[in-house]
From TrEMBL:
Keyword list, A-Z: Kinase, Transferase
Keyword Transferase set for record: yes
Protein name: Similar to Saccharomyces cerevisiae YJL006C CTK2 Beta subunit of C-terminal domain kinase I (CTDK-I)
GO biological process terms on file: regulation of transcription by RNA polymerase II
Biological source species: Geotrichum candidum (Oospora lactis)
One Gene Ontology term of the molecular function aspect: cyclin-dependent protein serine/threonine kinase regulator activity
Cyclin N-terminal domain boundaries: 59-154
Length: 317
């Protein structure tokens, strides 16, 4: 990367250039490195995700009437931006959430005006019109930073579509399908959607819902028929189980559910042991690289320059 040469005339100055290769998924090892590099306390990070999910699936869903695909996309944007920018961001959680909702509404063709989103999310603060306009301008500037962090990569899709589709194919009971839907939304308080394809996460949410409701009608289940390997499905299940067992919160729909909040723990603990053993056995037998690899480059640093060119390349492997 080169920095501007101040000795040259303005018309001939060179600016930073960068080629960023965007990969659709990242490894847990890469996430641990980002936590360390960006000085992100994991507990504080997951609390931040939970707060964003509460706003997006609560207030934004009720007042802005966004469809679930827009809300899901917004949460994925929040996850990505907060993970790659850490505690160095100069924006509040609500400003980041507002920006991600604005971008998601454009991606999913459900556009809303920025002032409407700001007015909704900041309704309880009783800010003056001048203050709200300042926030709106900041959100519009933040939009570029979110898009650059994302690498202009919009390939991720909402998992709820797959929950409905797979539930119909398996002829699930309505109660089990509803529970799987709630689990797939709770999963936004974790990073499973950055590791695993959404259709596999949807399948894992159905498996967990069936286990919790003791519905054995779908077992044995051939995950390959849903374009998901058993190993990837188990990884998604492990992320779910760690979320509910290690980071329980009333923000999570399953934890707040009167029917399951007192029984899920006793069911999930032995199930987690079984899943962990299955994953470990697979990694040993197939010599899976636990450390992961990443060829991803850092985005252009605004500390050097906001000018120059950045090319974004989508990685398909």
């Amino acid at each position: 990367m080169t920095t501007p040469d101040q000795s040259q005339p303005a018309s001939k100055q060179t600016f930073p250039h960068l080629l960023k290769r965007s990969t659709l998924f990242i490894s847990p090892y890469r996430v641990e490195r980002l936590f360390s590099k960006n000085d992100i306390p994991p507990n504080a990070f997951y609390t931040r995700l939970g707060q964003a999910a509460e706003v997006i699936f609560g207030q934004a869903c009720k007042d802005l009437k966004f469809p679930v695909k827009t809300l899901s996309t917004a949460m994925m944007l929040v996850q990505h931006y907060c993970l790659f920018n850490g505690n160095n961001v100069l924006s509040t959680n609500l400003e980041i959430t507002s920006t991600c909702l604005l971008i998601a509404s454009k991606i999913e063709d459900t556009p809303k005006k920025s002032k409407d989103i700001i007015a909704c999310l900041y309704h309880g603060f009783k800010y003056s019109p001048t203050k709200l306009e300042e926030i709106r301008i900041h959100v519009l500037h933040l939009e570029r930073a979110v898009l650059e962090t994302l690498g202009f990569d919009f390939r991720q899709t909402s998992p709820q579509y797959y929950v409905i589709k797979i539930s119909k194919d398996l002829r699930l009971k309505k109660e089990v399908a509803k529970l799987a839907w709630d689990i797939s939304i709770d999963a936004f308080s974790s990073l499973v959607y950055l590791y695993i394809p959404t259709h596999t996460v949807a399948l894992a949410s159905i498996v967990l819902a069936a286990k919790l409701s003791k519905d054995e009608s779908i077992f044995p289940l051939n995950s390959e028929s849903f374009e998901s390997t058993r190993y990837k499905t188990n990884l998604a299940l492990l992320e779910f189980l760690e979320l509910y067992l290690n980071r329980p919160s009333n923000i999570l729909r399953l934890v707040a559910d009167e029917k399951y909040k007192d029984v899920y723990y006793d069911i999930f603990v032995p199930f987690k042991d079984d899943i962990s053993r299955a994953i470990e056995n697979f990694q040993i037998s197939h010599r899976v690289d636990k450390n992961g690899r990443s060829s991803e480059l850092a985005i252009r640093s605004s500390k050097l320059s906001n000018d120059g060119a950045v090319r974004y390349v989508l990685g398909w492997d």
